Amino acid sequence: MKPIKPGTPGASLPHLTPVALAMALMQGMAMAQPAQNTTSADVPDATSLFETGGQQGIGPRPFTSFFERLSTPVDKILIKVAGNNLSADGVTGTDVNLQLLDGKGMPLAVDVDVTIEVDGGARILLPGRKTSESGADRGDIDRIQPGIQYTVKNGALAFKLIAPYKPDPVTLKVSVKGVVEKVIVRYVPDLREMLAVGLVEGRLRSDKFDPRVIVPVRENDGFDNELRGFTKDFNGGRTNLGARAAMYLKGKVKGDYLLTLAYDSDKDTRKILFQDVDPNAFYPVYGDSSVRGVDAQSSGKLYVRIDNKLSYLLYGDFTTIDANPARSLSQYSRSLSGLRAHYEEGRITGNAFLAQQTSRQVIDEFPARGVSGPYSVSNPNGVTGSEKVEIVVRDRNQTSLILKTTALTRNADYEFEPFSGQILFKSPVPSYDDQLNPVSIRVTYEVDQGGEKFLVYGGDARLKLSDVLSVGVSMAKDRNPAAPYEITGANLHLKLSQHTEVIAEVAHTNSVVNTNASGYNANTSSNFINRSGEMTGSAARVEVRHSDEDMRLRGYAVRATDGFNNTAGGITGGRSEYGASGAYKVNRRLTLNGEYIHSEDDIADTRRDASSVGADLKLSDRLTVGGGVRRVSQNAASLTSLTGNTCSSGTGGGSSGYNNGYGINQQGNQQIDPATGQPVVCSPTTLSATTTAPVGLDRTSLYGRATYRLTDTVMLSGELQREFGTDSTTLYRLGADWQVAEKTRLYSRLEHSRSWGGAYGLGVGAASDSFAMGIDTQYMQDGSLFSEYRLLDGDSGKTVQAALGLRNGWRLAEGLRMLTSVERVTGPTGNASAAGVGLEYTASELWKGSGRMEWRQDANNTNWLLTLGLARKLDSDWTMLARDYANLVQPRTAAGSNKRQNRFQVGFAYRPVDNNKFDALGLYERKVDNDLSAGTDSRTDIISLRTNYHPSRPWWLSGRYAYKQVNELLLGTVNDSYRAQLFGARVTYDITNRWSIGALFSVLQGQGGARQYAYGLEAGYVLMDNLLVTVGYNWRGFSDKDLTASDYTNRGWVLGVRYKFDEDLFRKNDPTVNKTLNPTAAPAQP
Predict the structure, then answer these.
(1) What is d(CA 490, CA 538) in angstroms, rounded to the nearest whole number?
(2) Separation between Cα atoms, residue 850 and residue 839, nearest integer Å
């Protein structure tokens, strides 16, 4: 379907008019804060109340959430999937039956529009449709909104769920306004027939003299790459024998087992975990729409995986995270390479792992800044691919508790900027969420510490004693001599009823902290300051959740002794957290709510208590009012810990707790203390005369609030809160919500609250303001396909999405998505403002584009971020992709100087679709890195071109050209430049089906005319099918007109043997493959 041009009938202008109107409305009207603390367990669509693990997905939501379900005739959704443990072959469809029931349990008689969403790479095929891909033929009645919208008649719908290619659990979700139902469909590996590809090669090389004495061995300096896996030198280094073996095998063995095996003796085994195809490496576009991926991820030379239904045995890269929702305190999360086993059969689930390594884990958590980045971590030497990036939302009233953790995906949700590898997100990360809970970024990664290898091992087991009761145990041990660590745990999950569940858990840790001068076992939490040596501690928790049509309830208790140490456990040593919250719908109009929270830290001697009781009354379909009483109590020590002066976000200066990081922009990387959930305090500050901390805080307040639905899509709300006691004042929250789609809304929030103190904005210090505007969506984040980014035969959607894609936007029209974010925070530690806008277009099959601009300003700096991207299918043969990244830091202090980084890149691909005579890839890149404060200015230009020409069957020609120029300013006064270019060509001629000859030439010309060159001749003969023998003679040398004494030319013979094979090699006893077994058999009929 072609996009409609503006001004033509059916153009999207009517859809954009309310967008512009609401944007103006939200900027000029009073902003409202939806009421809090009314529905503390708002997960009505969850199969289990604890299915997300820990406290994820729990948090205060707008108190109208109970009333959203009243506007739909649907009371219940039933989903039936025909089977489970299905084959993940990517093509097979499974029947799904959907039923919509009314309040009497009968099928709905009226037509209703539903939204169907699915993740994990699965697809939906609607009845009467031939395709499950995105597009007009899929049957989606609203292609603007995410997911599939479809009209259900007579309360029933039958469709097919198309299997993914990967054997992962798939979530199928169906929703009608506030009524949601979802099921988890398990997929197992597809028992496909055997596929095998591989090669074995050897090479004997004899030179005039040892080339290593003259110049380091270089790859590709002759006809073939140097073989590094197996090598042996003779004759004083002048003769070299090398060999290589590489293969990939996947297929069914012994009936019901799936074997995946990969091996490469020449593989680069540098520390890279979960190696994948990097869309930013090499050329930006290849003119090929095939999907590329890595099936056997291993940082070693060998990968083996054996699957049997839901169980598997793996040798390769893995993570140790356990999906058991009852595990939190004993959770052990590492990215390792080694042996892992998973067993799942009947009522038993078990895991075990063993790795031998030299790496340690580093966890950085720092506040989000309202922009996409860039954000740096504390150690730039992390193991590539080991990172786990999460967005963490903490409870604003109890910041040591995490409400929600969202794991992000590399290249889809974030990438690494091209200069120093800092993290750059695909959308702004707000400082606060829509309920003004603080948002932070947590990055967990591995760092190679070197030295002798040590073992890391562990396991867990879970037994389902009955349909309602499960128990589990776990242990993990890290035998790192610099940071030994051990953790054990036990857990219980009990379903008291369909709506009520209980989990309980205990954990015990043994660790050594703060004893190593290199920082290998450093613990920066405030609860471990001035403590070192061996630490032993335990923790326990119990949690109850209840959720039905009338009541949402959550109660919890967590306690950890002083020596407990688990960064993935959600609590630090010496802390106690207790609380309960919930809401009860008395009738269709009245809702009661209440909350109690208690936090205590034995080490810091802090204590906080908060409670709230209230009611909300729906006076009409548009107006709801509420009110209640709140109380906060804190001791003086807890106030002192909050009135410290957090580290400056512009200098770093070695202050304790500040992540200096690296790169152009280090702002905002102050570490979060997991003990408090607050930024690490660098040094205390003296409060002003009007904000002197009292002996303790004991405040009571009354509040009143209201929401008014201005239209069917725009809701205004506000709250007033009056403190009673010393220095009493009036606090308020204002905001607005605009529902731009069924499950997507724009929100804005303005809050006026105390600078320091406890829950509900009550506390001490001058009042401060916080303002935020952003987008909130309830659509499944990974429920869309890459097909919307796919160019027509030009490039895969995954590659284009990595280069151009923006996340978390709201759709203005089909294929048109917008990003918006605004926030401002004022307070005694300084003011900070951030704003951003982005636009993405993907509707056309011929071109895709995106752009965004973000701005942030605080007391130290003004930051600008700009990204642009364009992918274009020029015609049937030509494809182009261009992108630009710019980052500008403008200090607001007299001593500072601007810092600027800019990378512009454009690439093209020529791939004819009707012949393969000629193809080409090209790239131009310009990088500017300017920092006048450091006296550096670097400008780099790069050109790269590769071509292949096949004029006729026997002729094969290829060429390459590369150019690089660098102009630098060093130390503010020294100018330097460098220029180099590379020419290369190769030609091969097939004399017969068995004989071939070839020649090559390459030269690298550097600064001042210095040249490195290589040329040679080669002849090849096919001894038998797939067995090639080659002999060649190479000339390699170096010349420099200024260094004539260093000129040399090295000559030598190269003898090579190469054998390639496939799965037929293992089927010699099959007459259909080995014809000699039955030479008289009649030929197969076509």
Answers:
(1) 12
(2) 6
What three-state secondary structure class fits 760? Answer: helix
Q: The dihedral of CA 763, 768, 769, 770: what is its sign? A: negative
- Which residue ranges make up each domain of the chain? 39-189
Q: SS3 for 989?
A: strand
| DSSP single-letter state for residue 602 | T
> Rg of the chain over CA atoms, in angstroms?
32
Report the side by side order of strands in the sheet with 148-152. 148-152, 112-118, 170-176, 179-185
Alpha-carbon distances of 256 from 253, 314, 808, rounded to whole Å: 7, 17, 42
How many CB atoms within 10 Å of residue 134?
Answer: 22
Question: pLDDT of 863-877, one tens digit each?
Answer: 999 999 998 988 888
Is the CA virtual torsion 884, 661, 659, 383 positive or negative? positive
Average pLDDT for residues 1028-1049, to the nearest whole number? 66
pLDDT of residue 47: 43
* Residues with Cβ within 8 Å of residue 601, at least 6 apart in sequence: 527, 574, 575, 576, 607, 638, 675, 676
pLDDT at residue 471 is higher than 70? yes
Domain 39-189 in CATH 2.60.40.10? The answer is yes
Per-residue model confidence (pLDDT) at position 458: 95
pTM of the model: 0.80
608 close to 641: Cβ distance less than 8 angstroms: no
Average pLDDT over every residue of 684-695:
45
3-state secondary structure 1011-1069: EEEEEEEEEEEEEECCEEEEEEEEEEEEECCCCHHHCEEEEEEEEEEEEEEEHHHHCCC
Scan for tokens 């980052």, then name that residue.
887
Map tokens 């954000």 to a residue.
375
Tell me 690's DSSP state. T
Q: What is the 3-state secondary structure (H, E, C) of 62-119?
A: CCCCCCHHHHCCCCEEEEEECCCCEEECCCCEEEEEEEEECCCCCECCCCEEEEEEEC
Structure tokens at 550: 């009338």
Contacts from 715-719 at CB under 8 Å and sequence distance 24+? 715/32, 715/64, 715/739, 716/29, 716/30, 716/32, 717/32, 717/33, 717/34, 717/35, 717/62, 718/30, 718/32, 718/33, 719/32, 719/33, 719/35
Residue by residue, DSSP assigns 738-759 as: EEEETTEEEEEEEEEEEEEESG
**Listed range (764-778, 782-796, 830-844, 957-971) with the worst mean pLDDT:** 782-796
**Residues contacting 148, CB < 8 A, separation 6+:** 115, 116, 117, 124, 126, 138, 139, 140
The pLDDT > 90 percentage for the chain reads: 27
- Reply yes or no on whether the pLDDT at 494 is more than 80: yes
Residues 784/786/788/792 CA torsion (nearest 10 deg): -160
Q: What is the distance between the terminal CA atoms of the chain, rounded to a whole angstrom?
A: 40
User: How far apart, in whole angstroms, are the C-alpha atoms of residue 370 and residue 431?
Assistant: 5
d(CA 804, CA 815): 13
Each residue of 1029-1066: b (16+ CB within 10 Å) or e?
ebebebbbbbbbeeeeeeeeebebebebebbbbebeee
> DSSP letters along 129-180, please?
-S--SSSGGG--S-TTSSSEEEEEBTTEEEEEEE--SS---EEEEEEETTEE
Q: Give CA–CA dist 587/573, Å, rounded.
A: 44
CB neighbourhood size of 201 (10 A)? 19
* C-alpha span between 96 and 82 (Å, rounded): 6
Q: Which of 291, 416, 170, 148 is nearest to 786 (CA)?
A: 291
- Let me know how long the chain is: 1086
**Residues 218, 268 contacting (CB under 8 angstroms):** no
DSSP bridge partners of 884: 868, 904
Instruction: Specify the pairing of strand 955-970 against strand 861-873.
Output: unpaired
Question: Given the DSSP bridges, would you call strands 918-931 and 696-709 parallel, antiparallel or unpaired?
Answer: unpaired
pLDDT digits (tens, 9 = 90+) for 530-550: 777 888 999 999 999 998 878
Q: What is the pLDDT of residue 21?
A: 29
